[in-house]
Design brief:
The structure is a single chain. By secondary structure, the protein is of the alpha/beta class. The protein folds into two domains: about 5-45 and about 290-390, Alpha-Beta Complex (Aspartate Aminotransferase, domain 1); about 45-285, Type I PLP-dependent aspartate aminotransferase-like (Major domain) (Aspartate Aminotransferase, domain 2, 3-Layer(aba) Sandwich), CATH 3.40.640.10. Helices cover about 40% and strands about 15% of the residues. It contains 14 helices and twelve strands. It has helices at about 5-10, 15-25, 45-55, 70-85, 100-110, 125-135, 155-160, 180-195, 220-225, 255-265, 270-285, 290-305, 340-350, 375-390, and strands spanning about 35, 95, 115-120, 135-140, 165-170, 200, 230-235, 245-250, 325, 350-355, 355, 365-370. The strands form three sheets. Strands 2-8-7-6-5-3-4 form a seven-stranded mixed β-sheet, with helices on both faces. Strands 9-12-11 form a three-stranded antiparallel β-sheet. The structure holds pyridoxal-5'-phosphate. Pyridoxal-5'-phosphate (PLP) binds near residues 124 and 234.
Length: about 400
């Protein structure tokens, strides 16, 4: 079948592909543990589920306004205002089908064909694909484990050019767990203003940060220069609501209007029931937030303890999210020549699925998602340990 150029070179999501392969192997009878998924093992908290059930019972099952229910837009603005001093109103918010659609809306709304987007690498898998679909050109700004996986102004400046239109920051980061400090982000934000580009801040893991690190939001910069900043967040990670598909963005009113037009012509509003659930989430908060964060931090401890016993493997301490991104490249030899062959080896020998770092723009690493039960995680780490000693 003849397909459009824009999909021919498009990569399928690597994380979903690894998970599917792990499931296939498990179905064929192999003992497989997948540390590849990007969601917590917690359930959506009961009060949120109840709000959704109530909305169905009450017949809240029709289209809503394209940009989202006014109360939810206000609740999202309140969230950004209460925690991060955004000073936003409902008119600065768009409710989308997940943070993913918000990000996509922004790319489509601001990139003209040939415009460049700076993407610090390692990056979340979907950023380059979104930029490409929008007709833009992703420009990877490389860093590595030896630099805690963070970029600085000098790195961005080196990759900046006359066509640079946006820069995508993601702190806490998927896949590395890196959390930028306030002064680091302030320097990058000041640079974005000086260069007059849009700094798109994906803050979806803002509630999952481990002390003494703290989340620093770019909402304060948005307040001062709304035309240079956009902040994306959602309920998937912080409220264990990945399947509800509900995200929100904070941006200049012009960008909100443009993104609303795009969304109106593609998916219309986010699911009405999910919007009611998200309203409950944002107004009630997550009663299990602290339990979830503590569990993740404990599991991170298990990962770091295991990694410290793997010779030649470098893993800067993640400070947030639920991923670790060890650099395994010193173990590459013979048939194991890159992150894909390394992950195939682990799947074959250890029965553990990790996601190859190449999917995130760093072929030296592999991503471990530790959002699984402690017992399962420990067993997986032991299996990796044994396999590495056979490598
Ligand atoms: C960094 C990052 N941004 C955005 C998303 C998308 O989140 P949502 O489920 O709200 O679309 C994810 C999901 O894995 C993510 O890791």
């Amino acid at each position: 079948m003849r397909l459009a150029d824009r999909v021919v070179g498009l990569k399928a999501s690597a994380t979903l592909a690894v998970n599917a392969l792990a499931k296939d192997l498990a179905r064929s009878g192999r003992d497989i543990i997948s540390l590849s998924v990007g969601e917590t093992d917690f359930d959506t908290p009961r009060p949120i589920r109840e709000a959704a059930v109530l909305s169905i019972e009450e017949g809240f099952t029709r289209y809503t306004a394209e940009a989202g229910m006014p109360e939810l837009r206000q609740a999202a603005a309140d969230y950004f205002n209460r925690f991060y001093g955004a000073g936003a109103g409902a008119e600065h918010i768009l409710i989308g089908n997940g943070a993913k659609q918000c990000l996509f809306n922004i790319m489509l709304a601001v990139l003209n064909p040939g415009d460049e987007a700076l993407i610090p690498a390692p990056y979340w898998v979907s950023y380059p694909a979104m930029v490409e679909i929008a007709g833009g050109k992703p420009v990877e700004v490389h860093t590595g484990a030896e630099r805690d996986f963070k970029v600085g102004v000098e790195d961005l400046e080196r990759c900046y050019g006359p066509k640079t239109r946006i820069c995508i920051m993601n702190s806490p980061s998927n896949p590395t767990g890196a959390v930028y400090r306030a002064e680091e982000l302030d320097a990058i934000a000041a640079w974005a203003v000086e260069r007059n580009i849009l700094l798109l801040s994906d803050e979806i893991y803002d509630r999952l940060v481990y002390s003494p690190a703290r989340h620093y939001s770019l909402c304060g910069w948005w307040r001062k220069r709304p035309e240079n900043f956009a902040v994306v967040n959602g309920v998937s990670k912080s409220f264990a609501m990945t399947g509800w598909r509900l995200g929100y963005m904070l941006a200049h009113e012009d960008l909100i209007k443009a993104a609303t037009k795009l969304q109106g012509q593609s998916t219309s509003n986010a699911c009405s029931i999910s919007q009611k659930a998200a309203l409950a989430a944002l107004t009630l908060g997550n009663p299990e937030e602290e339990t979830m964060r503590r569990s993740m931090e404990r599991r991170l401890g298990l990962v770091l303890e295991a990694v410290s016993r793997w010779p030649g493997v470098l893993c800067p301490r993640p400070r947030g999210a639920f991923y670790a991104f060890p650099d395994f490249h010193r173990l590459y030899r013979g048939e194991i020549s890159d992150s894909a062959s390394f992950c195939s080896f682990l799947l074959e020998k250890a029965g553990v699925a990790l996601v190859p770092g190449a999917a995130f723009g760093d072929d030296r690493c592999a991503r471990i998602s530790y959002a699984v039960e402690d017992k399962i995680l420990s067993r997986a780490l032991d299996k990796i340990h044994d396999a590495l000693h056979q490598a």
